[in-house]
Specification:
Length: about 140
């Protein structure tokens, strides 16, 4: 059975990978000018491929978590982060330029990571309310 907390941890890891990619790519492009055109296409492809992993993971984790804790503000925060990432992945280079695209992608990743952190914490704070339950524990 999928647990939203496991998916939240995975999604936070993916956000970290994305941010690391955003930080390392400009350095590589600067150091390897011969490959800069190739790096641009690989960068574009990387962001779009990451969406195929990030979006389903985030949607499932936030859905499962919100079903438990009922905090729709967490889902809304996640939706904002996912929306930013989708817009930047498809239009960022044209709309923002290379540097601003990295900044906006990082902001989207941080917003999404924050929503997963909040989702994780909200799920962990739920305690057993069953009268037959002899202890408080996390579900």
């Amino acid at each position: 059975m999928l647990k939203s907390t496991s998916l939240d941890k995975f999604a936070i890891l993916l956000s970290g990978v994305c941010m690391l990619h955003c930080l390392v790519t400009p350095v590589l492009v600067t150091l390897l000018p011969i490959f800069s055109l190739t790096a641009f296409f690989e960068d574009l492809l990387f962001h779009q491929l990451m969406l195929w992993i990030v979006l389903p993971t985030s949607l499932v984790a936030l859905f499962l978590g919100c079903r438990k804790h009922k905090k729709l503000s967490i889902a809304a925060t996640g939706a904002v982060g996912m929306g930013i990432l989708v817009v930047v992945a498809f239009f960022g280079h044209d709309w923002f330029g290379i540097t601003a695209e990295k900044v906006v992608t990082t902001i989207g990743g941080l917003v999404l990571a924050l929503s997963h952190y909040l989702n994780f914490r909200a799920c962990q704070s739920i305690t057993c309310s069953d009268t037959n339950c002899s202890s408080t524990h996390h579900h």
